[in-house]
Structures are given as structure tokens and as C-alpha cells.
Amino acid sequence: MLLSTWAFRHKIQHSLILILLVLSLSSCDYYAQAPSCFDYFEVGDTSGYELLEGGLARHLQSQTVWYRCPAGTSFSQGVCQGTMLSVSWEEAGAFAEEFSEKSGYRWQLPSTSELSSIMQTSCRNPAINPNIFPMLAVDNHWTRDSARVNSNRKCTVYTYQGQRSCRELPDSEHPFMLLMRL
Question: What does the longest C-alpha to C-alpha distance in the chain come to?
């Protein structure tokens, strides 16, 4: 009788511990979705940036100057107008060179780390402040970087969550942003 009472209590304790463990884990929401950046940032919130004339924005933390609209579009009256380009990696680099010649400023594709530095971790879809970049598409955006292991592959940043990838074929077509070199 003593052994069966001990076994019964042991089973009860074990069951209680298991129930508490299940309850504590069920309160963790591993699949919680970060809010959309359109909901996260209040209208007009430009914190972390200095807005400059001509559709430019300086990211204060990295001191990089960005064109606020994707390549192929122009900034006018607070919005991006025109059709966003989606081109190969080589064509994106050529566009930056031509844009530099015509504008008189030195423009280039951002590095993977530069583009990642302006991505937000607290929101997504796209993971960037829409008050600063009003028309950024959720897509893989070209960077100027190549994969370290295979230089035939190029790097992008996926703007939904800001994830990096260096597996893109250079003839794939993607949008891109421009960064000014001062």
C-alpha cells in the first residue's frame, strides 16, 4: 500500500509539472507577427532621419544619404511618381552611373549592410519607415555586393522583413534603391 501511494503521488507531481510546462509554453507566441510598418509609424514620424531637399533623406545613425524613391521613380510633393524599375544587377549598376552623370552627384547601389541598416526590426511589410520611403515595394532589392563564396551570385535585401540573401543570379530582375556618396 505504501508503494502504491508513493507511485500515485509521484504520478500526480509529474502530471502537474507537465501541465504547468505546457501552460507556460502555450503562452509564448512564437508565431506572433510584427505589425505592418504602415501601422507602426505614425503619419509624419521621421525619427532617425533628416529630410533634405530633392527627395533625399539622411539616415542619422549611419550618416548615409538615400534617394527616398525606388530607382525609376521621382519624388514630388511627398510621393514617388513614375514606374519603379526592376532590372538585372548589371543594369542597376549602369543606372546608378548614368544617374550620377546626369545629376552631378555620386550615386550607387547600397551595400548589403547599408541597406540592412535602414531596415526596421519592430515592423514589416515593408520593414522600413514608409514616411521616409513612401513607395518601397516588398521585394528583393539589389545591393552592390556579390556572394563571398560564389562571386557569380549577387546579394539582395528582402524588404518584407529585411532579410539578406547572396544567392541571386545577376540576370534576375529586381528593384533597387540609390545611395549618395558625398
Answer: 94
Q: Count other Cβ atoms within 10 Å, centred on residue 66.
A: 23
3-state DSSP percent of the chain in helix, strand and coil, to 5:
25, 25, 45
**33-67, pLDDT tens digit by residue?**
899 999 999 999 999 999 999 999 999 999 999 99
The closest of 43, 46, 47, 65 to 56, measured between CA atoms, is 65
Half-sphere exposure in the Cβ direction for 170 (13 Å, CA): 14
Q: Which fold has domain 37-181?
A: Mannose-Binding Protein A; Chain A (3.10.100)
Separation of alpha carbons 147 and 69, rounded Å: 26
What predicted TM-score, i.e. pTM, was given to this entire model?
0.81
Q: Which residues touch 146 (CB under 8 Å, ≥6 apart)?
A: 152, 153, 154, 155, 166
Q: Residue 104 in contact with residue 48, Cβ under 8 Å?
A: no
Query: What are the extents of the domains in the chain?
Result: 37-181
